[in-house]
User: Fold this.
Amino acid sequence: MTPEKPRPEKPSPSDAAETRRRARFGTLPERVRAEDMVVEKPTTVPDSARDAYNSDEWLVRTCL
Assistant:
């Protein structure tokens, strides 16, 4: 077996840079509840005049 070579140590960041990093990225944002991610809107009342089916309408649209 060959002896392991000591790894070079990483340079430590300066205290000011460490403080800035921790202030910016030190904590996770607050969790968003599932109830806050859903928007509920009331449905519209069906318009019977607009939604009425006319069996002869396809003739007018395709034959004329």
Remarks:
- The radius of gyration is 34 Å.
- The chain is about 35% helix and 0% strand.
- The chain has a mean pLDDT of 77.
